[in-house]
Structure formats: C-alpha cells, structure tokens
C-alpha cells in the first residue's frame, strides 16, 4: 500500500506534518465533576473525572499526596470490526497505567493529601492514536473539574513510513508496520516529556526526527486545548454575568471558575 | 422429530399431549424434601421438575451493607441435563435473568421487614425443563419459603399462558412455547389478588392481554388451592409426628 | 451500583407532588423529559444514535457483520444485543461493577425484539437479513453504552436502539455463482471498505462502489419500551433517578406503533392489583404513542438532512 503519494499527500489527504482535525467539548456529562469529549479525526474519546473525594480504600490512603485512579474502556462498537473486549485485558491495563502515570505527573497531588481522584476514559471510536486522545481528554476533564495542575498535558503520536516522518497516525497508517512514537509533554516546562512510548524499531537519527515531529504535534495540540479552555471559561463568565446558568454547562463548572480565579 | 415440527399443535380442541386448552399438566407439589434446608419444596408438572431449597434468613454478607429490610437472594440453576441440549456449568445470562424475575415475584409476598439485616437464600434447581420453568419455580419457591417459616403476606402461585395457532394454552410445554406467537407468565398472590410478576413476550393486543391474564389468574387460583392443601397436610403430619414423639418420651420416662 | 441515598422527607415530597400531578421538574405524571436524538455519532458503525432523555445519556452503535444463521431459523438473520456500563457514568461501574445491570438491560432489549417462531413477528423482519439460506446472513450487533445514569434507562435504551437501527445502512450483497459450479457462491459487496478483508479470499468478489445501493432496515414496527411506575397510588412515566427511589412497583412495557404490547416485565419489590397492572399497560400504550411520534419526527428530520447532504 502506498502511504504517501508522489505529491506528498497521505491516504486521508493530509500532508505528512499535519494533524487531524481536533475537536474538544467540555462538560458533556451531567453526573461527573468534570468531563470532556476529545476528537482527533475519527478517534473519539470521552473522559470523566470524579473527585477529589475521600479515599475509598483506607489502606491506600496517603497523607502526603492524593491518589489518582484510572480506568480505560473501549466500546464494543469503537473498532472497525466489532469485538467485545474484557475490561481487564492487557492492552487496557497498559494504557490505563500510561494514562495514570501522565496524570500523576501533571496533577498537583501534594495539594490534596488523603484524597482520591477517579479518571475514567471511554473510547467511543478508535482510529489510531487512542492513547494520545485519551490523555488529552483526561486532561481536559480534569481542567473542567478544576483540579489544580502543573501545566497543560498534551499528547500526540508520530510515525515513520516510506522514509517520511508522519504526524498523528490514523489506524491504517498505524498498522503499516512502521514505528509509532507516542509522546506527552508539558509545553510550558520546556516541552518536558511526560510519556514516551514506541513500537517497532527505528534508526536513532530517524527516531530523533520523529520525536521532534511528535513534540511539535503536542505543542499544537496543547495550544488548541488552551484556546478551548479559555473559550470555555469566557463562556462561563459571560453566563454568570448574565445571571443564568449556561445551557448544557453543569453548575459544577461555576465552581470551577471560582477555583480558576484564586 | 422433523415430522412433528410440521404437524399442528392443536387438533379437535385438544393438544398433542391430549390436554384441553385450559388444562394443567399433572401437577405434583411437595414440601420438606431437603432435610438440611430451612425449607424446601419440589414441584413437578409432567416434564418440568423443579427443586427449591431455602436457607436462612441468616446474616447478610458484610459487603452488601446494612439494610432495614431483609433480602431475598435467588439463584436459579438449570441442571446441565435439564434441557435437550446439554447445558453448561456456571451461570448463564438466561439463569441470571430467571433469578432476577423470580426474586421480584417473591419479594412482594414476603414480609421483608421481619428479618432486617438478614438474607434468605433461595436456591432453585431445575432438574428438567419441560416448559413454563419460571412459573413452576415461582410456585415451588413460595412453598419453600412458607415451609421455612418465613413470614409471608400470601402464597405466590404462577402459571404461563401461550398464544399459539389462535388459541390460548394454559401451562404450555417447551414444544408449544417454541411455536407460540406470544406468551406470558403471571405470578399472583391469590388471596389478596396482587400481581407480583408479569412477563410477556411477543405481540398482544389489549383485549388478548386481558383475556390471557384472566386465564392465568384462574390457573393461579387452581394452583393456590393445591398449594394450600399441601402445606396443610405437611403441617398436620408434622403435628402428628411431634405428638408421637411426645408420647414415646412420656412412655420412656 | 451503590444505591443513592434519599431521605424520608424527600420521598414524602415527591409522593405528594405526584398525587397533585406536579413533579419536581414541573412535569405531569404522563410527561416525558426532553428527548434528544442524534444519528450517526459513530461514523465507523453501520448505524448509531446518541439519545439523551433528561440527564440520561446513552449511545447505541450497530455493527453489521456476516455470520451464520441460527440453525433453528436458517433463513433469518440475527440480532445480538449487548449493553456496557461505562465507568464514565459512575465510579460504581469500575471493573465488573456494571455487569449485573448490563445483563438485565440487554435481556430486556432482546425481549422487546422477540422474533417469534417464524422470525417475522419481531420489530425487524429478520428474513430480510438472510444472504444464503442456512449458510450466511447478516448479524447485527446492537451494542449500547451507558454514559450517564439519570433514571429511566430502559426507555432511553429502547429509543436509542430503534434510532440506531433506523440509521443503519446495510450494504447490498449479491450472490454470484462461481465459475466452477461446484464452488461455493461468492459475494459481492457494495461500498464499505471495512469488509475488504472478509472477501479477499472469496472466488467471485467484485465491488460495486455505489453507496446508493446500501439498504436501510425497515424499523417501523420496532416497539419502544415505556416503563410505568407506581408512586403512591398513581402511575407515572419517565422517572428521574430520584423518583425511581420512591417507586414501589413498575412495569416495563414494549409497545409498537399500532399500540400492540410486544413485551412486558414487572420490576421492583411490591405487587400490584391486576386491574392496576392493566391500567399501567394502558398508560404505557398512551405514552408510547407520544414517544413514537417524537422519535419519528426526529428521525424524519435528520434522515431528510442526510439525504440532502448525500
């Protein structure tokens, strides 16, 4: 299969260093303390945050930091062919761990001792780059829940096919057999890398090129999320001034505004 | 068998097994069949054979939490040899659903307030599934609860009705149910006339539903008379046994 | 699921409100909450719909795959129902937490589609899904995902399932006789690239790229489920999560467009008088007519829009 045409266009019409269309929506679920829907092209992920709240299992309580719990679930209709995934399969466990690890580095866990934050991500549609979309969605949901965080957490993947570094692989490109480098960064801390995972082997020179591309992708994703959060806060502020809760936004989000203020 | 599938279910106002449309199979009910259980019952409707054991009420498991009302936990198991095709070990979704439906049927009739913080475990074993398992199990389970001395507002009796080939058939067999257009199962507290469970499948118009419900209520009333008779006989036997025991002890003294 | 708490005073308040025919959110006893139906939210699925009924939020995705028919019904396709409780809806669904609820909901959905012995009595004519009698047929996997639990899940799920099936476009399959007459017949599939892998090895595989050939299912006879509950001495529909805690008995009734009852299950602890049960069924029939109309309006609008875009 030809992944990059002679004109330099990819299967879905993108250029090699182009992200898919990003979409983010905050406060999509009524019962969660914070929630977000994040889309990267056809990959569509929903995240919900419950907490901070008291620790459920006493023995896990930590009087220095808060506990971050994570669960990753894939809808049975999310993949090309239907399959019923058990909730605890290996892939899910691995992704859960990766997400939790990123979040633990981002949330100011020291500020909330003896508490627990639950973060759940649900993949609605999978078309490559699910773990990156999950991390972005989880970050947005945490922001919507007004959980104090160090920085924006932005994630994006890049790969290398037919001697070209490609940003933000979709499912077909992901299954193309090339390397797949997933990265998450803190853009305001000199692009500090929070997550770095790679499948398949790749030459060290190429790796650097791919990594640079992925980091650049993360920066773009981060900027997009920053804009969306600002818009969201502005909308909430406007709604508050108008004296009526904004349609669709839960009341909890007004509390979020309080937190943002101080 | 292939030939049978093509033949009509009904001929000259009779069903394949010679019953009239509104006639039960041969019904046999009995209590006190498992000695270790707090209460037990056995029900046989020709080829549908069900055994029920009730244990407790005993202290609820810690994980289910505190509750002012008692709980009934129902576990229905179809024996692996109960169906035409061999069943599987472990609970199937079908069994889980039967358990949930049966729990609803029994809860309304039981005075749950009389055993707070405790659970009565109802284990139902379907030895042979010959049709109308839910109904037979509900009737037997209510008898077993009564046999266990758990306070009840009323007995529960249940029966199924199938609509097939334009007729309403009481207490359908598996073959009849497999070819029904629609069917329902009704569980009733006959003395206070309360529906404790009602399950239907397939299309019913309002008038058909009304008619089928009336037929099922009639069936439940018939079963109720029998069930009460069984309980009375069992109580009388127990009383006689106690009397004989007392006499023997008096003689020994 | 850990049951939410409610105080005796709240129960009394809600019960009294119901007896005056005015509920907490201003509705009357037989009013539904606002219903929103969005079709095609999962572009990779054959059909999908997101349904919001008040706070309750569910997504149903339908995937059509080629499989083999049930040996008891060789000339019919199959419908397979599944329900997943997303942890996103509640921390109680973490791990295997939602399994019991999802099993119950899936069976309830299945029952309202009960196809009868001929396979033609259910809401969907399964014989239209047959490809080669006894060998191959379409299997429609109807998978639901619960995103938010705000009361009356059953009804929301049944609306979503019907909407997703209405949205489904089944690719047209033509059986092509193999060159060698002893060959198994091959298949010709329209349109959908996700089927490629299935047919790579079939001898007479041709693709007709015409998306117009894909067929919609006829779902006009699919019933909708309406749950009618008793609060105090009154029948109420579309309970919120809080109201559900005040109800002693409820009946789930699947009703089709012409008002025929297609499935019925009683839930919850208390018994009801037979005449009350029949009255509840009548309430369900009345409410179902309104629900069918609301869904039909929503579906009609969105499908017309899709047509004009296509």
Automatic annotation (TrEMBL), chain A:
Record's keyword annotation contains Cytoplasm: yes
UniProt domain Exoribonuclease phosphorolytic: residue ranges: 18-148, 151-216
One Pfam family named in its UniProt record: RNase_PH
Region named Disordered: 240-262
Keywords: Cytoplasm, Exosome
GO annotation, biological process: nuclear mRNA surveillance; poly(A)-dependent snoRNA 3'-end processing; rRNA catabolic process; U4 snRNA 3'-end processing
UniProt subcellular location: Cytoplasm; Nucleus, Nucleolus
GO MF term set: RNA binding
Any one of the GO CC terms: nucleolus
Acidic residues biased stretches: 249-262
The UniProt record lists the keyword rRNA-binding: no
Signal peptide span: none
Family: Belongs to the RNase PH family.
Stored PANTHER family: EXOSOME COMPLEX COMPONENT (PTHR11953), EXOSOME COMPLEX COMPONENT RRP41 (PTHR11953:SF0)
Protein name: Exosome complex component RRP41
Lineage, opening ranks: Eukaryota, Viridiplantae, Chlorophyta, core chlorophytes, Trebouxiophyceae
Automatic annotation (TrEMBL), chain B:
All residue ranges annotated as the Exoribonuclease phosphorolytic domain in the record: 23-151, 154-217
Localization, UniProt: Cytoplasm; Nucleus
Keyword Thylakoid found: no
InterPro entries documented for this protein: ExoRNase_PH_dom1 (IPR001247), ExoRNase_PH_dom2 (IPR015847), ExoRNase_PH_dom2_sf (IPR036345), PNPase/RNase_PH_dom_sf (IPR027408), Ribosomal_Su5_D2-typ_SF (IPR020568), RNase_PH (IPR050080)
Predominant cellular place of this UniProt entry's protein: cytoplasm
Gene Ontology CC annotations of this record: cytoplasmic exosome (RNase complex); nuclear exosome (RNase complex); nucleolus
Keyword presence, Transcription regulation: no
GO terms, molecular function: RNA binding
Keyword entries, A-Z: Cytoplasm, Exosome, Nucleus, RNA-binding, rRNA processing
GO BP: nuclear mRNA surveillance; poly(A)-dependent snoRNA 3'-end processing; rRNA catabolic process; rRNA processing; U4 snRNA 3'-end processing
Family, similarity comment: Belongs to the RNase PH family.
Protein name as it appears in the record: Uncharacterized protein
Organismal lineage: Eukaryota, Viridiplantae, Chlorophyta, core chlorophytes, Trebouxiophyceae
Automatic annotation (TrEMBL), chain C:
Residue ranges occupied by any Exoribonuclease phosphorolytic domain in the UniProt entry: 31-171, 222-286
Keywords: Cytoplasm, Exosome
Residues that span the membrane, as ranges: none
One GO CC annotation: nuclear exosome (RNase complex)
InterPro entries in the record: ExoRNase_PH_dom1, ExoRNase_PH_dom2, ExoRNase_PH_dom2_sf, Exosome_comp_Rrp42_subfam, PNPase/RNase_PH_dom_sf, Ribosomal_Su5_D2-typ_SF
Listed name of the protein: Ribosomal RNA-processing protein 42
Subcellular location: Cytoplasm; Nucleus, Nucleolus
Lineage, broadest ranks: Eukaryota, Viridiplantae, Chlorophyta, core chlorophytes, Trebouxiophyceae
């Amino acid at each position: 299969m030809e992944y990059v045409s002679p004109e330099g266009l990819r299967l879905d019409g993108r250029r090699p260093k182009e992200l898919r269309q990003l979409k983010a929506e905050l406060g999509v679920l009524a019962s969660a303390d914070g929630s977000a829907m994040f889309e990267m092209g056809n990959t569509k992920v929903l995240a919900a945050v419950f907490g901070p709240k008291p620790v459920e299992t006493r023995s896990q309580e930590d009087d220095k930091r808060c506990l971050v719990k994570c669960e990753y679930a894939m809808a049975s209709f999310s993949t090309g062919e239907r399959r019923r995934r058990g909730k605890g399969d290996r892939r899910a466990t691995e992704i859960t761990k990766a997400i939790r690890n990123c979040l633990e580095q981002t949330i100011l866990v020291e500020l909330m001792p003896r508490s627990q934050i639950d973060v759940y991500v649900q993949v609605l549609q999978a078309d490559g780059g699910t773990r990156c979309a999950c991390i972005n969605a989880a970050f947005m949901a945490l922001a919507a829940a007004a959980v104090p965080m160090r920085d924006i957490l932005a994630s994006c993947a890049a790969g290398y096919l037919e001697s070209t570094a490609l940003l933000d692989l979709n499912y077909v490109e992901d299954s193309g057999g090339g390397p797949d480098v997933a990265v998450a960064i803190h853009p305001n801390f000199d692009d500090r890398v929070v997550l770095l995972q790679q499948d398949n082997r790749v030459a060290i020179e190429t790796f650097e090129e791919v990594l640079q591309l992925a980091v650049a992708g993360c920066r773009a994703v981060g900027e997009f999320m920053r804009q969306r959060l600002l818009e969201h806060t502005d909308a909430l502020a406007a709604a508050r001034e108008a004296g009526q809760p904004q349609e669709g936004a839960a009341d909890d989000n007004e509390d979020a505004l309080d937190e943002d203020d101080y | 068998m292939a030939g049978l599938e093509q033949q009509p279910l009904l001929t000259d106002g009779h069903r394949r097994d010679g019953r009239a449309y509104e006639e039960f199979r041969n019904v046999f009910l009995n209590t006190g069949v498992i000695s270790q259980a707090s209460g037990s019952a056995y029900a046989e409707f020709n080829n549908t054979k069900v055994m029920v054991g009730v244990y407790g009420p005993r202290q609820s498991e810690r994980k289910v939490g505190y509750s002012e009302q008692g709980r009934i936990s129902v576990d229905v198991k179809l024996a692996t040899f109960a169906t035409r095709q061999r069943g599987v070990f472990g609970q199937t979704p079908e069994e889980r659903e039967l358990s949930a439906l049966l729990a609803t049927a029994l809860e309304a009739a039981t005075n749950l307030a009389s055993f707070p913080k405790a659970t009565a475990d109802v284990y139902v074993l379907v030895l042979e599934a010959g049709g109308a398992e839910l109904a037979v199990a509900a009737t037997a389970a209510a008898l077993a609860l009564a046999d266990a001395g758990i306070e009840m507002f009323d007995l529960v009796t249940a029966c199924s009705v199938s609509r097939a080939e334009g007729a309403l058939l009481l207490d359908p067999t598996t073959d009849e149910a497999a070819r029904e257009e629609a069917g329902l199962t009704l569980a009733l507290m006959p003395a206070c006339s309360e529906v404790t469970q009602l399950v239907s499948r397939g299309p019913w118009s309002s008038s058909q539903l009304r008619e089928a419900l009336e037929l099922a209520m009639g069936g439940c009333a018939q079963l109720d008379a029998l069930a009460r008779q069984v309980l009375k006989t069992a109580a009388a036997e127990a009383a006689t046994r106690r009397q004989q025991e007392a006499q023997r002890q008096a003689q020994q003294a | 699921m850990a049951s939410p708490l409610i105080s005796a005073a709240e129960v009394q308040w809600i019960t009294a409100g119901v007896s005056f025919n005015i509920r907490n959110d201003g509705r009357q006893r037989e009013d539904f909450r606002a219903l929103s139906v969005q079709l095609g939210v999962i572009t990779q699925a054959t059909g999908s719909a997101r349904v919001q009924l008040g706070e309750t939020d569910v997504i149903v995705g339908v995937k059509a795959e080629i499989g083999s028919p049930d040996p008891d019904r060789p000339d019919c396709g199959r419908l397979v129902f599944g329900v997943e409780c997303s942890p996103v809806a509640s921390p109680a669904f973490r791990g295997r937490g939602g399994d019991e609820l999802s099993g119950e909901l899936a069976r309830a959905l299945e029952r309202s589609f009960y196809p009868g012995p001929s396979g033609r009595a259910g809401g969907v004519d399964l014989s239209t899904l047959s490809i080669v009698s006894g060998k191959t047929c379409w299997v429609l996997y109807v998978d639901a995902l619960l995103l938010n639990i705000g009361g009356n899940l059953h009804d929301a799920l049944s609306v979503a399932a019907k909407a997703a099936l209405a949205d489904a476009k089944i690719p047209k399959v033509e059986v092509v006789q193999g060159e060698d007459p002893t060959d198994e017949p091959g298949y010709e599939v329209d349109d959908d690239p996700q089927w490629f892998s299935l047919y790579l090895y079939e001898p007479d595989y041709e693709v007709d790229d015409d998306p117009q050939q894909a067929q919609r299912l006829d779902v006009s006879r699919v019933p909708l489920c309406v749950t009618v509950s008793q609060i105090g001495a009154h029948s109420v529909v579309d309970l919120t999560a809080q109201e559900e805690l005040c109800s002693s008995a409820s009946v789930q009734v699947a009703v089709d467009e012409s008002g025929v009852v297609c499935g019925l299950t009683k839930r919850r602890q208390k018994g009801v008088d037979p005449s009350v049960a029949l009255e509840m069924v009548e309430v369900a029939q009345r409410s179902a007519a309104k629900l069918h109309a609301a869904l039909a309006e929503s579906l009609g609008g969105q499908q017309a829009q899709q047509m004009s875009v296509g």
